[in-house]
Write a structure and sequence with these properties.
By secondary structure, this protein is of the alpha+beta class. It has three domains: 248 residues, 2-Layer Sandwich (BirA Bifunctional Protein, domain 2); 132 residues, Alpha-Beta Complex (YbaK protein); 101 residues, Rossmann fold (3-Layer(aba) Sandwich), CATH 3.40.50. Helices cover 28% and strands 28% of the residues. The chain contains 17 helices and 31 strands. Strands 3, 7, 8, 9, 10, 11, 12, 21 and 24 form a nine-stranded mixed beta sheet that branches. Strand 30 and strand 31 form a beta hairpin. The two termini are 36 Å apart. The model has no long low-confidence stretch (mean pLDDT 95).
Length: 580
């Protein structure tokens, strides 16, 4: 491929809209261009990277027995109503009407469609297990699209769905997909962790996320170096050592004028946030819900949703709290059920034996002191609803937990019969009895992988691609283009490297040497072959390795073998750890 016939649309300046390195470099290197908030076109270089990611995904999915199909993005409302998710999915679902007024969704995921498809095609247990996958655009109406393709409204996803006859079969299918995912992310050059995760709107009881470590990651993962425990923020449990009173003390009313926040209250009283129990009020489809937790921690709404059994939860606005007769900023658990009949009160497990707490008094400008959870609070359950914090004791071995920021690049679920029961999708067993399919689902953010890789692999000059993902393996930079022998050699190297099976770009543009060097580093070609002054003087060409910055001279006839050997070694370092 010649750059003179191939659009290299790099940018010298960083666009103001780009907040993080991956977004900046994807724009500057000419991989993507913005169409609208959270919607991007992949330019030729970006499409080549995307194709390489897709090829790795396909190879590993096929290796572990999955079969590729392609389903429509446009899905009828009726399917989602069968599963009960049309209303539950909320505003993130892109909804459209056809000319006859019928409702459709632009698919954020495809559990409903694949369940109906398999129900219509598969009849007998003899046809199981089965695993279908696709690579396709998905749509989610993100309230705040940001970070380029990391949080986009249209994105490329690989989604797979397994169908088994029983839980034992599902466990085997799930483990195969787990191995495939480890292979995929390893081959893409990612530093990642596999962590336990909440199942959310997808459903099921077991799920794990594959998290690429990155300082800009919007997710937090907790892990224990001693025993290997790992979970994301939505599921992580950390045992904490709080110092509470050994004996009950008398309740007292404390005047706290205008002290609505934890910081204001603790500063006014001169106490630690852990001495305060805060009460957060929510609305669910079942009524009102109160979460009581230590003042130094935040509620994890995913945990709260599971603990309450609610389909959706919504934090009450200040005016909604005032409408309950409770002054905003002064809500507390003591006597709460008397003020709000039928409210469900959940207390975080870290407060199970707490005494001597300060809590809101449900009266303006007042708090209560000396509160004992066991003595003074009418609660419905003691549950884990608060965030873990770095330094908490690991729930498995007691060692200190560590926290890291990460980008979710994959998520796998054991769905069980969540969809097959709801949609009456059955197969016949050995006895001719109808049984629901036992399902799993497995998603990968294909376009998001590119951003995650760049976050982990870049420097001040640009992208440093793992060799498995680079848009071209080699760039031949024709620097002395006014010399006929240099031009002829560059052409020959391009042809020889291509014949050796490498992806090669010949930069024969009428640009300065500085522009060609800068673009090669910015785009991140793993190897640069420089045909310039050194060749005219010595007959040797220079080779630059992007990842190390190393430069060395080479006889032109040895260039294909020299680069081929290095590429082979680098690819081997990224080889898949699991075989089928």
């Amino acid at each position: 491929m010649k750059a003179s016939r191939y659009p290299i649309t790099t940018l010298k300046e960083t666009p103001a809209e780009a907040e993080v390195a991956s977004h900046q470099l994807m724009l500057r290197a000419g991989l993507i261009r913005k169409v609208a908030a959270g919607v991007y076109t992949f330019l030729p270089l970006g499409r080549r990277v995307l194709a390489r990611v897709e090829a790795i995904v396909r190879e590993e999915m096929n290796r572990f027995g999955a079969i590729e199909i392609l389903m429509p993005a446009l899905q009828p409302r009726e399917l989602w109503e069968e599963s009960g998710r049309w209303a539950a999915y909320g505003p993130e679902m892109m909804r459209v009407k056809d000319r006859k007024g019928r409702d459709f969704a632009l698919g954020p995921t495809h559990e409903e469609l694949i369940t109906r498809l398999v129900d219509g095609e598969i009849r007998s247990y003899r046809e199981l297990p089965l695993n279908f996958y696709q690579i396709q655009p998905k749509f989610r109406d993100e309230p705040r699209p940001r970070f380029g393709v990391i949080r986009a409204r249209e994105f490329i996803m690989k989604d797979a769905y397994s169908f088994d006859r029983d839980q034992e079969g599902l466990a085997k299918s799930y483990e195969l997909m787990r191995k495939a995912y480890v292979n995929i992310f390893t081959r893409c050059g990612l530093d990642f962790r596999v962590v336990s995760a909440a199942t959310g709107l997808i459903g099921g009881k077991v799920s794990e996320e594959f998290m690429a470590l990155a300082d800009i990651g919007e997710d937090t993962v907790f892990h224990c170096e001693a025993c290997g425990y790992a979970a994301n923020r939505d599921l992580a449990t950390g045992r904490a050592s709080y110092s509470f009173s050994d004996a009950d003390s008398d309740l007292e009313t404390i005047d706290t004028p205008g002290m609505r926040t934890i910081d204001e209250l603790t500063g006014f009283l001169g106490i630690a946030p852990s001495s305060v129990a805060k009460t957060m009020l929510y609305r669910t489809e079942n009524g009102y819900l109160a979460a009581v937790l230590p003042g130094d921690r935040e509620v994890v709404e995913a945990k709260l949703q599971v603990a309450s059994g609610a389909t959706s939860i919504e934090l009450l606005a200040p005016e909604d709290i005032e409408a309950l007769g409770i002054p905003f900023g002064f809500a507390g658990p003591v006597g709460l059920k008397d003020r709000v009949p039928d409210i469900v009160v959940l207390v975080d497990e870290r407060l199970a034996n707490a005494r001597g707490l300060v809590v809101g008094a449900n009266e303006r400008d007042r708090h209560l002191g000396g509160v004992s959870i066991a003595r003074d609070v009418a609660y419905d359950a003691i549950v884990d609803i608060a965030e873990a914090l770095p330094g908490d004791a690991c729930p498995s071995c007691g060692s200190a937990l560590k926290a890291e920021q990460a980008i979710e690049v994959g998520h796998i679920f054991q769905l069980g019969t969540r969809y097959s029961d709801a949609m009456k999708a059955y197969f016949s067993d050995e006895d001719g009895q109808l049984k629901p399919f036992v399902m799993g689902c497995y998603g990968i953010g294909v376009s998001r992988i590119i951003a995650a890789v760049i976050e982990q692999h870049h420097d001040g000059a640009g992208i440093i691609w793992p060799v498995t993902l680079a848009p071209f393996d080699v760039a031949v930079l024709l620097i002395a283009g006014d010399a006929a022998e240099a031009t002829a050699l560059a052409e020959r190297l391009h042809n020889d490297l291509s014949a050796a099976g490498l992806e090669v770009l010949l930069d024969d543009r009428e640009e300065s040497a500085g522009v060609k060097f800068a673009d090669a580093d910015l785009i991140g070609f793993p190897y640069q072959v420089i045909v310039g002054k050194t060749f005219l003087k010595t007959g040797q060409v220079e080779i630059k390795e992007r990842s190390t910055g190393e430069r060395f001279s080479c006889n032109p006839r040895d260039v294909p073998s020299a680069i081929g050997e290095r590429l082979a070694a680098a690819t081997k370092d990224l080889s898949a750890p699991f075989s089928a």
